[in-house]
Design brief:
The protein is α/β, with parallel strands linked by helices. Helix content is 32%, strand content 19%. α3 (67-76) links the parallel β1 and β2 (82-87). The longest helix has 23 residues, at 537-559. The protein starts with 12 loop residues before the first helix and ends with a helix.
Length: 560
C-alpha cells in the first residue's frame, strides 16, 4: 500500500507544497496557494541588507532565548556582530518550546509547548531543513478518535447530526443542516466572501486594512456567530464539538479564521526526538567554530553569540544624548544585579513579562498601551506516563493510533503519541509498550480552573475525565499511569501566558505599532505576539528573522 503524502517522513518542499495545493483545491480556494506560501516564507536573507562582517565590533543584546531570540541572533551573526542573549530560564532552553522526558534515555516524552508543525509554516520548515532535523508525520490515515460531548460518546466517524443535534436547542433550519455545512458556515463563510487578495490580510500586518477584512476583526467569535444568525443552541453545539474554539469565544473572530485560512490543523508534523531539538540546533551552531549553516560566509566574517541563562532583564534605558542602550538584569539564583551597554537590542520577551521591566524613556504611547493590554491566553497540559498504550488496544472501533480526542469536559482535548503512526501493522508496535499521553490540553478558563486546582485533586479529575471519554471503569488508569506532570503556562514565571490572542480591534490598533523600533532605531522587537501566527513557532521564527533584517538595514543605511 502506498504511503499517503501526508505521512511521508521528512517531506521535501515540493511534497509539502503538493499537500498544500491539494488541501486548498479540496477546500475550493486554490487561488490562496501563492498568498499563503509567499506570506509565510522566511524574510529575505540578512545579507541582502548588509554585507557579511559589516557589523564587526557592534554589540547587540537579545532579550529572551526562545525561538524569536535564537533566530534573530543566528541571522545577526552573519554580519559579524557580538551578540549576547539574556535568557531568564536557567533550567531549560526554548522558551515556549518545552519537551519533557520521563526517562534519562529520552525515549518517553511529549510536549508541554509547541508540538505541531503545519506544512504551510514555511519559516519553521526553513530552519528545520537548514539544521537537518528529522520530521515525523502526525496525520493519521483515518481518524477514529473519541468525541465526548453532552455525556455522549462518539467516534469521529459517527454522525454528529444524528447523535448530538437532538441534545441541543437548535432551530429547524439548523437541525436540517449537516454538521460539515454548519461548521463551514460558522468559520469559512465570511472568509470566502472576501476576494483572495483581501483574504490574505488575515496573515499580514499592515498600516491600514481593507474595510471588508476589518469586519472580521471587530467582533468576538461569539458575536460573529450571533451576527451570522446562529442560535445559542448552535453555538453551544459548536463549543462542544470544537472545544478549542469553544474555549475562546471571547477572542477576535479573525484569530480562528486565520488558522483555517492557512490550514494549520491539516497535514501536521513534529520533530523526531522532541521539538526542543530545534532550539538545541541553534545553540549548537552558536558554539561551533565553523558551523555548516553559514557555508557561504567565511568564518572570519562571523560574529559571536554568547548565551547567558538565568538572567532576567529588569530595565531598559537609553541615557540622554547617548545612542547606546543599557540593559539591567538580575541573576535568578544569586539575585546579583548587573548592567550591560549595547549598541542595539532585540526584545523578544512576551508583553506579559515586559510589563514589569522598567523602561526609561518610555516607548511610544501605542506600544506602551499594547504592553499594558495586549491579550494572552492561558493553557494547561498534563502528561501521563503510561506503562501500556490502552488506547491502541483493539476495540470494536479498531485501534486508536495517534490523533486526538475532544470533549466538553474540563480537560478539553487528549492527544495520543504519534510515534506508532508509521508502524506497518500492530505486531510492529505493541500497545503493551509504554507511551506518554497528553491527558489534558486546554485553553483559557478551562486551563485556569483545572490548572489551579490542588495538585492531587487535579490529577484525579483529569484521570477520571480520561476514563469517562474512553468509556472505561473508574479507577482503570490507577495501575497504568506511573508518573505525570502538569504545566500551567500562566504560572510559568518567565512566560505568564501560553500565547497571544487578540481581542476585537486589537490587531488594527496595535499590530503595526508593536513592530516599530524604538529609541531612535536602536531597539527592535520580535516574538509570536508580534506576528499573525500567534501560538505557533512560525510567528516567533519569522519575526526574529525580520527584526534582524530591520536592524541590519538601519545600520547599513546609517553608516554606509
Amino acid at each position: 500500500m502506498a504511503v499517503p503524502l501526508n505521512q511521508v517522513v521528512n517531506p521535501t518542499n515540493e511534497q509539502r507544497h503538493e499537500m498544500i495545493r491539494n488541501s486548498l483545491k479540496t477546500a475550493g480556494r486554490p487561488e490562496d496557494y501563492e498568498y499563503i506560501v509567499n506570506l509565510l516564507s522566511p524574510p529575505s536573507d540578512i545579507t541582502s541588507y548588509a554585507a557579511p562582517g559589516e557589523l564587526k565590533g557592534v554589540r547587540i543584546g537579545v532579550m529572551g532565548g526562545g525561538l524569536a531570540g535564537l533566530s534573530a541572533a543566528f541571522e545577526l551573526r552573519k554580519l559579524g556582530a557580538d551578540i549576547t542573549i539574556l535568557e531568564a530560564n536557567d533550567n531549560r532552553i526554548g522558551g515556549r518550546v518545552y519537551t519533557y522526558y520521563f526517562d534519562v534515555e529520552g525515549k518517553y516524552y511529549n510536549e508541554f509547548g509547541a508540538h505541531r508543525i503545519p506544512v504551510t509554516h514555511e519559516t519553521t520548515w526553513h530552519y528545520m531543513n537548514l539544521f537537518g532535523l528529522n520530521t515525523l508525520p502526525l496525520s493519521v490515515r483515518q481518524r477514529n478518535n473519541f468525541l465526548y460531548v453532552h455525556n455522549t460518546r462518539l467516534r469521529t466517524s459517527d454522525s454528529i447530526q444524528q447523535m448530538l443535534y437532538p441534545l441541543y436547542d437548535l432551530t429547524p433550519q439548523e437541525r436540517s443542516t449537516p454538521w460539515a455545512e454548519l461548521d463551514d458556515y460558522a468559520f469559512l463563510y465570511l472568509m470566502m466572501q472576501l476576494p483572495p487578495d483581501i483574504r490574505s490580510e488575515l496573515i499580514q500586518i499592515l498600516p491600514e486594512y481593507s474595510p471588508e477584512y476589518l469586519a472580521l476583526t471587530n467582533y468576538t467569535v461569539r458575536q460573529t456567530l450571533e451576527n451570522l444568525g446562529l442560535s445559542q443552541g448552535a453555538i453551544n453545539l459548536i463549543s462542544g464539538v470544537s472545544p478549542g474554539t469553544g474555549a475562546l469565544l471571547n477572542i477576535s473572530y479573525d484569530e480562528i479564521t486565520q488558522e483555517e485560512y492557512t490550514l494549520d490543523y491539516r497535514n501536521t508534523y513534529t520533530i523526531e526526538g522532541g521539538i526542543v531539538n530545534l532550539p538545541y540546533a541553534f545553540l549548537q551552531s552558536f558554539l561551533a567554530d565553523n558551523p555548516p549553516q553559514y557555508q557561504d560566509i567565511p568564518v572570519s566574517q562571523l560574529g559571536t553569540v554568547t548565551y547567558r541563562p538565568g538572567q532576567t532583564v529588569t530595565g531598559i534605558y537609553q541615557p540622554l544624548n547617548s545612542s547606546q542602550i543599557i540593559l539591567a538584569h538580575r541573576n535568578v539564583r544569586s539575585l546579583k544585579r548587573t548592567a550591560d551597554a549595547f549598541d542595539y537590542v532585540v526584545c523578544t520577551i512576551p508583553y506579559s513579562t515586559l510589563r514589569e521591566v522598567e523602561i526609561k524613556p518610555f516607548f511610544s504611547n501605542p506600544k506602551m498601551q499594547a504592553i499594558l493590554e495586549f491579550n494572552y491566553i492561558n493553557s494547561q497540559k498534563t502528561l501521563f506516563m503510561c506503562n501500556k498504550r490502552f488506547w491502541e488496544q483493539d476495540t470494536d472501533y479498531g485501534r486508536m493510533v495517534g490523533g486526538f480526542s475532544q470533549t466538553d469536559l474540563p480537560i478539553q482535548a487528549i492527544f495520543y503519541p504519534g510515534d506508532h503512526i508509521l508502524c506497518p501493522d500492530a505486531s510492529s508496535c505493541s500497545p503493551y509498550e509504554p507511551g506518554v499521553l497528553a491527558a489534558s490540553y486546554n485553553y483559557h478558563l478551562n486551563a485556569t480552573r483545572v490548572g489551579n486546582m490542588e495538585e492531587s485533586l487535579r490529577y484525579e479529575l483529569i484521570k477520571e475525565n480520561v476514563e469517562e471519554v474512553h468509556g472505561v471503569p473508574r479507577g482503570f488508569l490507577d495501575s497504568i499511569v506511573e508518573d505525570h506532570k502538569t504545566v500551567v503556562w500562566d504560572n510559568q514565571p518567565y512566560n505568564r501566558g501560553a500565547f497571544a490572542a487578540t481581542l476585537p480591534g486589537q490587531k488594527k490598533l496595535f499590530a503595526y505599532e508593536m513592530l516599530k523600533p524604538e529609541f531612535n532605531q536602536r531597539i527592535y522587537f520580535a516574538g509570536e505576539h508580534l506576528s499573525t501566527k500567534h501560538g505557533w513557532m512560525q510567528g516567533a521564527l519569522y519575526t526574529g528573522k525580520e527584526a534582524a533584517n530591520q536592524l541590519a538595514n538601519s545600520f547599513h543605511s546609517q553608516f554606509s
